[in-house]
Give the backbone structure.
Amino acid sequence: MADKKLTEHLANLSKLSFTDEELSRVTDEMTDIIALMDMVQEIDRNQNTFTLPAVDYDSLRTDNADKSFDTQEIIRNAKTKTNNAFTVPKVV
Amino acid sequence: MAIKELHKQLSAKEKGAVELTKRYLDRIEKYDKGINSYITVSAEKAIKDAELAQNRIFSGDSGLLTGIPLSIKDNICTLGTRTTCASKMLEDFVPVYNATVVEKLKNSGAVMLGKTNMDEFAMGGSSQTSYFGGVKNPYDLTRVAGGSSGGAAASVAAALCVAALGSDTGGSVRQPAAFCGVTGLKPTYGAVSRYGLIAFASSLDQIGVCGMTAEDCAIILAVICGEDKNDATSSDKAKGNYTELIGMSLKGKKIGIPKEFFGEGVSDEVKTAVMNGAEVYKDAGCELIEVSMPSLKYAVSAYYLISSAEAASNLSRFDGIKYGHRANGETYDDIIKKTRSEGFGDEVKRRIMLGNYALSSGYYDAYYNNANRIRTKIIEEYASIFEKCDVILTPTAPTGAYKIGQQEKDPVRMYLSDICTVTVNIAGLPAISTPCGYDKDGMPIGMSIVGKAFDEANIIAFCDVYEKTFCRKMPKERNSVQ
Amino acid sequence: MKYIPVIGLEIHAELLTKSKVFCGCANEFGGEENTRVCPVCSGMPGTLPVVNQGAVELAAKAGFALGCTVNNYSAFDRKNYFYPDLPKAYQITQFQYPICSDGIVRVCGKDIRINRIHIEEDAGKLIHDDAEGISMADYNRCGVPLIEIVTEPDFRCVEEVQAFVEEIARRLKYADVCDARMEQGSLRVDVNISIMPENTKEFGTRAEIKNLNSVRAIGRAIEYEITRQTNILEHGGRVTQETRRFNDRSGETASLRSKEEAHDYRYFPEPDIPPVFISEERLDRIKAEMPEMPNVRFERYTNEYGLLEDEARLIVEDKAFSDFYDETVGIYPAYKETSNLMLVELNRCLNDSNGKMSEIKFTPQMLAELVSMSDKRIVTKNAARDILAIMFETGSNPESIARENNLVMSTDTDELERIVEQVIAQNADGVESYKNGNEKIIGFLMGQIIRILGKSADMKKAKEILLEKIK
């Protein structure tokens, strides 16, 4: 069961903003979706959870430095940049 | 025409590679306005690819895929060609590197015609959530093409390419292949490198192939598969010749039919068509065994929790700072919230919200962990079924393609319709869907053959036996193709 | 009321690998913005992390250096939060299964417990421009491999914390795991601190002070926090659980964010990276490569070699210095004499010339020869110092230096006796004063003898003759 408070919390975690109208609709949708998801509560908790099979240390990437990418390629898709760095309004 | 046949004609110089590519580009020009299977057609690049391919053919340096025109799903990164994930978020994103599969196709001399339409960020089963408009089913333009690789399947069905690369996280290659009446192969997790596939759910995503036949899919898989140093989850077990078992005798082979896949929600037409398919195998000497997957009823919930949790994290990088859509705002927080709210569509937002719910403090064990407990359970149930059978036969989707607008707006209904395909991704297994009938509206019905991990050659051989007996009805756009 | 501080540390150390932890970009300090960046470490869509074996190896070495269990099985997780220096909006770290656990490091006569060491990736660097009101993100540091060392809250005073940080820095440098340059940020310390009334057992509410970049700053920040928290409690207030930042100029800490705004990091297993298994055999091999740690050397120097604690401490401070000492005494075991020569004369030469141990022109073999010459009284102790200074300059061998500079001790007894007699004759008053019980005058008389003989004089012999003659 979702309420507006939960939806707002999730929106905040998700960095999404909703108008009041959207918030009610999303809350209703989330309520239905969570009801479907609640099926998973029926599983036996003693069942192991899933993990990827481990790989051996020997198969890890050897520590060698490669050439990096051209700086212009790295920043070419950014909408705002200054002195070859990505820019945002000042933080902190 | 099958890839092998085209290859023969190209090699014998009965056909030119450039001429072949141009023919497909013309068809796209002519038919794709109605179908909308492509987001970006890279005509110039395609012709250049074809010229290079022609040179290779002239110099005798060609393989099965040299000069063969293919389409690539628009969530697979292509250097210099925009890759949008059918999202406003990446409307103008141009990758600075090629996905491993694209690099491999390039080395094989294949021609890329363009980037195919899909559900936004591969989240959906209708290809209607695309920012660039939905994909129409070539059999009936008022119906969905399935999804999320709807553009891939439709482009193959309408002969707007020879074959297509798609991606399959919960059925996204197999289900649209079924809806569009073509063959769709989802390889074993790890068989194909995911490097350059824009991640939806990392532990479930796998690049797959849509083609006219199982053999075509196998030919392409052989080129794109293999361990990749850029993908730590890729496996060295995937290599070799996926067509090698084609033509083998099926006598005495055992096919498992899990009864839960034929339950409520699966249409009678689908059940009948798939069981008719099973009869074909029986005639070929196979033994049909009824098997059971008791945890299937939890599969959809487990799938949506795991995939959404991973998606919420994977899609966090889209903040407008480094690439993609950027909204204006006073503060960093303003900018990312606005960017994401404007850049993502409703379904993507729902998945991100659900994923963060499953991962957030206080809910993690109840949702994320329980979903992963079910994942282990399903893996165990598959293992026990495979102790008794060589392959498993299931429907690919509960119904045929439905009318656009009929159910895409109801998330829960949409999620439930993934019931037949998600367990394969949860268990990381290979599966192939092939048409096995048509419903009362004339829409194709697909059945899926599921195999053990890295047993692609086997399911391809099974699929091929069926395809050689089944008479397909193709959409009318296809008729003029030679 | 008297309060006792309870302190725990989280130490981030950058690993000395050639490449970054999840991609092949070079792991170096500084450089122009975004020049050591690729699609992987800049978080481009479709890219995947691939673990660097070197980072795992160094993290395991850190574990051995700090007395931890290095685990056969470790796994990576994602820590999700948005910040402009974190391009993927998640940091890959180890949450559930860290590479090392349960270490112990002894400082100030006390065992400090290490809870865990885990591997993670560093974030980028933000450059703030107040005039433009912007922050600029440079991703060169993104993906630089780090280990985070987490201690139990076992510290009760500033001295313990500072000694611990210095010990950790030293051991990581010895093991070649981290260069531990706090001023460059390759070793950064977060301090968790609370205070509790004396004679209670329950810890107070703690504050976390982030990113302290010198041992001095750690001391000042802790002192400030103790005063601040004491003031709050004494005025009946409550300490809030929060993250604080230390201002080096004002010497004060200020709140960054409180617990209420704390992040929900939504940790979950990193699906792009399989867990890592390290066999016992492999761990043994890594362990076998470990050099002797400074604390073990310290024990050896003080217990077996009879050095003073201060001397031993000074020698182990720098590994290259200590290695040189060990090699020298390995050839000629004069522990005290070698220690004296190195700590006094060699250190003076190094300081005067701003030199480094790695660039020294002479070998331990040559120093051992010098020590042996001094020990066998071929040269005097004073001459040995002068010879060492010349060896430092020229790299020549001590024997030829001694010969060329007339520093070989004179063994001519007749000559000695003649000079002693001459000095006695010239200092009759002094001899008289000695006979009246003024033993100090011997020093003066010896000085006169050395003035004539020079540094090659066999002082011991001269003194014997002098005492004999004025008896």
